TrEMBL record:
The lineage of its organism: Bacteria, Pseudomonadati, Pseudomonadota, Gammaproteobacteria, Alteromonadales. Pfam families: FAD_binding_3. Keywords: Monooxygenase, Oxidoreductase, Signal. GO terms for molecular function: FAD binding; monooxygenase activity. The keyword Signal applies. This is FAD-binding domain-containing protein. The keyword Signal applies.
Length: 373
């Protein structure tokens, strides 16, 4: 691989910035195109499981991310009455994987990635709305165009597929936000309350903040505001443990948003000639999978390693898809199966989360790049 190989990245989210960093570190010449005027501050928080931290370590960011975020100790599944139904020992999982799990505010993660982008002098073009016709032009100018432009309106995905690929609404809303950490939340536990088709999760994310998500089955209502949905969340969870309404009442309203949650059906391919999609643009999963950011980061690591091994870009992209599709489809499937369970009226049972099985799934394929034959 020579330094003259040029990559255009569309989208400056987690996937796009991470790809820019790792590609540059591996000697590629990278430019990033982002339609917004600055990096996004939208979103509450992210849990980076050991597979994500593996990739961030390869990018030289493990320490920086660890210092900004929090290492949660347990995942607790709790019912409406506040009874803890199960505990996942995250420290045991981390030990098996060889990497920590870090929960972090999304704005802190984005700022950390962008600081690294600037330190590497990567060209970022903000305020650049890239449409389908622009992507075709970029494909002639660059050796590779990578679409990291999201699940809902990926222009890169439109170029790759002759027929429109539409995200699939899965019938529930997520109302998310950031609140000050309550004094009675101890032990850095990720707490997930589930019962009667409702779900409320809270995650420690910094020394003084946690992020949360309230979810329930819902029809799409484009007229309703986030403030109205927060009020609805307070009503729906009014008889649940008081910690939930405390977090809702103390939320930083600027951090809150409501999301009618969509995912994608597994796609038959992710590339066309020298254009490829990664992350949510390629394999968006539901938040119930817990693997959205982690799988995007795995894309980064695999794709750049494969490009280093194979000078013919289409062959590398084909191998990239074949390497990744089973794992990303598993994340999509798990997310849907859990959503169906969580948002139904059937009695809720704890999700079985054995550290050894999670390690086998999450760290699969990360010990070394898949070599091209």
């Amino acid at each position: 691989m020579q330094n003259t190989r040029r990559i255009a990245i569309i989208g400056a989210g987690i996937a796009g910035l991470s790809m820019a960093i790792f590609a540059t570190q591996q000697g590629f010449d990278v430019e990033v195109f982002e339609k917004q005027n600055e990096i996004s501050q939208i979103g509450a928080g992210v849990t980076l499981w050991p597979n994500a931290m593996y990739v961030l370590d390869k990018m030289g960011l493990l320490q920086a991310i660890s210092e900004l975020g929090v290492q949660p100790n347990f995942v607790q599944q709790i019912n409406q009455r506040g009874q803890v139904l199960s505990n996942l020992d995250i420290s045991q999982l981390n030990q098996l994987c060889g990497y920590p799990s870090i929960s972090i505010l999304r704005k802190d993660l984005m700022q950390c990635l962008y600081d690294k982008v600037r330190a590497l002098n990567i060209s970022c073009h903000f305020g650049k709305s890239i449409e389908s016709k622009n992507i075709s032009a970029l494909a002639k100018q660059f050796d590779l165009v990578i679409g990291a432009d999201g699940r809902m309106h990926s222009q890169t995905r439109k170029v790759i597929f002759d027929q429109p690929v539409e995200p699939v609404y899965q019938g529930f809303i997520n109302v998310i936000g950031v609140s000050p950490t309550l004094s009675n939340l101890v032990g850095n536990a990720i707490q997930e309350y589930r019962d009667d088709g409702l779900r409320f999760g809270m995650v420690p994310a910094s020394a003084h903040s946690c992020y949360w998500a309230a979810a329930w089955p819902c029809s799409i209502d484009k007229a309703a505001t986030t403030a109205q949905f927060i009020d609805e969340a307070k009503y729906r969870f009014r008889y649940w443990p008081t910690v939930i309404n405390s977090l809702l009442c103390d939320a930083n309203l600027d951090s809150c948003r409501h999301i009618f949650v969509h995912d994608l059906e597994p796609l038959p391919y992710w590339h066309k000639e020298n254009i490829v999609i990664i992350g949510d643009a390629a394999h968006a999963s539901l938040p119930t999978s817990g693997q959205g950011a982690s799988q995007a980061l795995e894309d980064v690591w695999h794709l750049i390693n494969l490009l280093n091994q194979q000078r013919q870009v289409p062959k590398a992209l084909n191998h990239f898809f074949n390497t990744r599709i089973n794992k990303t489809t598993t994340a999509q499937t798990i997310g849907r199966l859990l959503a169906r369970q969580f948002f139904s009226d059937i009695p809720q049972q704890p999700v079985k989360m054995a550290p050894a099985k999670l390690r086998m799934l999450w760290m699969q394929g990360l010990t070394s790049p898949n070599l091209l034959s």
